[in-house]
Structure formats: C-alpha cells, structure tokens
User: What shape does this take?
Amino acid sequence: MLMPRFGATIRTSMRQCAAMRNMPSMARAATPLASALLSKRWNSTEELANPDAADVRRLDRLRNIGISAHIDSGKTTVTERILYYTGRIKEIHEVRGRDNVGATMDWMELEREKGITIQSAATYAQWGETNLNIIDTPGHVDFTIEVERALRVLDGAVLVLCSVSGVQSQTITVDRQMRRYDVPRISFINKMDRAGANPKRIIEQIRTKLKIPAAALQVPIGAEDAFEGVVDILSNQAIYNRGARGEDIVYGKVPEHLVEAVSEAREELVAMLAEVDDEIGEMFIEDTEPTVEQLHDAVRRATIARKFTPVLMGSAIKDKGIQALLDAVVRYMPKSTEVQNTMLDIKNNEKEVDVVPYSNQPFVGLAFKLEEGKYGQLTYIRVYQGRLEKGQFAYHVKSGKKVKIARLARMHSNSMEDIDSVGAGEICALFGIDCASGDTFTDGSTQYSMSTMFVPDPVISLSLTPKEKNASNFSKALNRFQKEDPTFRVHIDEESNQTIISGMGELHLDIYVERMRREYNVDCVTGKPQVAFRETASVKATFSYTHKKQTGGAGQFGRVEGYIEPIESGEHADKPQEFVNRVMGGTIPAQYISACQKGFMDGMREGFMVGHPIVGVRMVLEDGAAHSVDSSELAFRLATFYAFSEAFKATKPRILEPIMTVEVSAPIEFQGNVLGTINKRKGIIVDTESQEDYCSVVAEVPLNNMFGYSTELRSGTQGKGEFSMEYKRHAPVYPEVQEELIKEHQKKMAEKK
Assistant: This one.
C-alpha cells in the first residue's frame, strides 16, 4: 500500500504524462526546451575524442566532490572520517584541536583555535577502485568565496545537514551556489546521535526550503543516544559499524520493529523517483516492482540531472554511516566525462566551445585557488582537458606569458605529494606561477578561456593602520590577501588617506587582521566598522543643463536634456545603473554620447548625501545642443555630471543599508531573550521554530545594528546561543536614521576642511 501523501498524486500525474511518453522520440525531445538545455551539461563526449582506453578506465574511476554545509553541521568531522576509512590518515583527530592536534583538513592554527574552517582544503583519497578528489569547504558565510570557487571546479557535492537544525541560512546559500554551477548533490543527515534528531523533518525541509525532491535511502536504527546504525532501503539490510573506530561493517537482518517503516520508506522512494525519472514512472503506472539495480540506476540518473537528492544519515563523531556515504558517492556522483563544461574561444569572438574531458586533447586548466606557501605561491588547478606534465610549458591566457611547470603536486590539506603528470579531470597544485584566482592556462595551441566564478560584493569595511609606521610587511600582506581572496578588497580613502579593508563580515576582516599579526608580525589598529551604504532615487526628475566655460582660446560648451528615474526592484537586478540614449536628429553628435555616459557614471560613483555609491538609477538622455568649435568630450562629460547631480537631489533620494538574514539558535528557555535582542536591533522576525529543547529564530536585521551582537547573545543565553548572518539585500533606512547619517557625514566633511 503506497503512502497516500505520495501515491495518489503521482499516479494521476503519471497517467497525464503517459501520452507524452508514447510520442515519437523526436517529438518528445523537441517538447521541453529546459531538458535540452539541461542535457548540455550532462553528456558524454567520448565518441568525439577517441580517447585512450586506459584514460577512459581512469576517468570512470574518478570522482571530484566537495563537502559543504551550514557552520557546525559537521563537514570537517565527516571529511576526517572519510580520510581515515580510505586509509589516507592513520588516526582520527577532532575539530577545535581538543587533542592538541586538530582535524587534518583544518591545518591553520586559527582554524584549530576557533573550531571553524576558514580556507577550503583539498585532498586525494581512494575508496575501493575509485579515486576521490575531495574539497572540504567553510560553513561560515564570511568565507563563502571558498565554497564558490570549490563548487566551480567540482562535479558533485555532499550537502551535510544537522539532524536537529536541518536546513539553515548557509545551507540555502550553498544550495544556491550548487544550482549556479549545476552541481548535483547527495544529502547526508549528520549528528543522528544528537538529542532531538529527526531525519523525517529534515527531509521535508529539503523538499520545502531547498525546493528539490528528496527521499531517504536509509532508515535509522534508533536515534539520539540509542542510534545504532541504518537500514539500507534498497538492499533491505541493516548496516552496523563495529570496531574501535567503526571501521568494521556488519550486515544483518532488518530489526522487526522497523520492517513496516522500511517498507513505507521504500514506497516513498519509488513514488518520489516516479516523479523525476521516466523509466520508474512508467513502471509505477504499470504497477511493476522495480529491481534493486533499476532503483540504483534511477537514483543516479535523477541525481546527476539535479532533479533529485538521495538522503543518507549517520553520525560522523560516533563513526557511523560514513562508509555507506562513500559507497553512495561512487555509485551516484557523476564521472568527470559525464559533466559537459564549456569554455570561450577568444579567437572566435568568445564563442562557447564544449570541453572534451580526455587527456589526448590540448591542455586547458583553471586556477581556482591561490595560497602563499613556504615555497612561494601555490596555485590550485583543475585540469579540464589534456595533460599537464612536470617540465612542460603552459600559457597564461590573460597575459599571454609562457610559464614552465617546475613542480607539480597533489595536495593533502597543507602537505603535498610530488607527481610527474596529471590527466584530464584531476586537481593538482603548481608552484611559483604568477596568476590570479579564476585565470585559465593552456598549452599554447588554443586560445580558450574558462568562465570564472561569481564573486559577491563586500558588505562591511573598516580602516586599518599599522602600529609601526614603517611596517614593510603591511602592504605585502594586503597584496597577498587580495590575490588569495577576491572578496577581500583594499583601497585608500582619498580624503582621510587611511587604508580601508572591505569584506563579507566582521569575522572575515578579523581573521585577516589576526593573520597579518601572526604571519607578517604586523600589529594593526582597526577603526569602527563601516557599513556599505548605498544611495538611490525614489521619484523621477527631469534635467536641462548647459555647461559653458570661456577661456582665452577654445571654450567648453555642452547642453544635455532628459530625465533620471529609479530602476524598479527586480527590473534589471543585475544592473545597478542604466544609461539610455534617445537623442534624435544629431542634436548631440554621436561621438559625444559615450562622454555623456562617462559623466553619468562619474556621478554614480559617489553620492551627494553620505558619499556612498548611487545604485538603481536610470538616466535617459533625450536632447541637447553642441557648438561646432567649443564642444568636446570633456564639455559633455562635465555637462552630464552636473546635470545628474542637480537632478538627483530632486528625486527625493534615499539611503539604502544592507539587510542581513540572521539565524539564531538557543535553548528554548532563552527564546524570549533572543526575540528581545532582535527587536531591540530593529529586526523583523521572519520565522521561528521550536523543538523539544531549543528554538531557532530567523530574522532580517540591518547590518548597522548587528555590531556587538555576539557578546549580547552570549550574555543573554549563558553562552549557549549561537547565530549566523548572511547578506540579503539593500533596503531604505528609516527617515530619522537617514537624517542622522547625513548630519554625521556633513560634520565629518566640515572637520576635514
């Protein structure tokens, strides 16, 4: 008997789709455009490349995966067990360096002290006959670029979720990043030994919050303190971890009290697969029971097509469930030959070209991460096609420079293993190569470039001054950090002449200030954090401005007319500004239109209320006038700049501030305190969830009001509360706050004069 929740709906939808399945294949393929686009990334190109048989066997036994999750879900603990069970390490060490050693992948001293992952770390392991390239990524939103660049070069990922907290704010961010790079995922519910563990609720959250069909492949045997192992739904076997560190796998019969639950879970899995896989869908309509192998194949197809995520469960800290996770990675994650990446042909007007992922092709690789090692700059490379060998020359596509590959290594956290060559699909590291994150290398026979990764804008800034004026390492450290991390920005304030650093959050900047002290012996004094405010228009305003200046010789003359208006929310969301030329009849000569656009961009660079950039404004140029002698590019650039500055003041301008999604977790008895602290900081409660012994509150709070919150939360929850925050959007400040900010800016400007 199928569970009513799934069976009825799916049978109806399957019957409605039956006619479509019986259509001729040509007609059926032409129907959904989305399917055609989807298949572009997930195709095999073996017939085009004519690869060597040994290379095909190597690639069939290769998986590139990442471990991603919200902070404190147990990613690094999971990775530590993976390394132990694959024989990569001989002993297990825990996060936070409780045994004065620390987890293998958290090799930085700061990571071990704080108990968080700051930098993504790569390693290489072997499970059975399959080679695994694994990248453990940070869970804290401040280090989101590490997740971004890891997912850019990986073929699959394991999304780790806490059995109690479930889908949290950074889980949603990681989900968005996986979708951006078309990365399929396996979901692993960790911490099944924790009080309040509820895998059914977490699976429902995956479906509702992450909007992806999900079903369990396992049923837990017990939970919380009584968690013993899992039942594999497909093979109908109980799996237990025995031995000192769970290294011995023992299979047994399904416990009698779980027989019905396992049967229901299997029916739920089949029903869910019927929605996303044609073969199982047809069998479902015909009431045919799929075999174990057919179910495995369907799970793999649906996972790789990103229509479904299989859910496994275990407890990494208790050494349970990790081997089954590794089996699932090998069985369900794509081979690199099944991932169709594209590159741009620079010689052919950046036309998209499919990557042919075999070693007999011309070499193309992407530098996705940089580190400063004791032997110089360490550059992590994903080889997309071709082979890279020690001693060969590679060409840096952006600069055209030829570089020699003097040393090639395979990384294992911060240690390395020298190798002579790597083939397509592999991840390796090079030494002494001058490049930036996101640069492409080739063998010189092609001019292909891989598309780079998405880099979010910083949301917070603060001034930085070295205690010793002649600190020679100060600029060296800043240059290195900027090169390593695209979200870390540095600029000199023209008015105060101070060095301003910008990043993704307080912790992000604090880590770099601390690294500067430890790694470069430069102690710094930091100023008060500055929020990345923006200015925008709220109503339409017209302009008609004539710039006229007469000197001894040729003067300056330019007249512009038109209007500026706010860009509606959601309209051209990727464009913070827009310039529209509607000049007719050549009243402004064509050669001066670009100068007008530059004048508009000059005006947008610095606002007129608090000196922050202007966003969300469209300028429409409709008319103007020029002089045959006195008009010039400079004249029209200045005319447009002054016209914009006058018109902007008439648009009832507003100041925008960054709004953060804040998620707070605390014991249930402190729920009132938590809500009080958020209300005090003018936050809007979006969602609250109460479990047996803890509560979770999601709110939207202005970043400007969040400084010092961690101290207040700790004191209000006896040190038991924790929170995370992530940038959501910019929104208008309250009118009284706007007045205060303008007065503060005017006072600052008066002091400088």
Remarks:
- The longest strand covers residues 654-667.
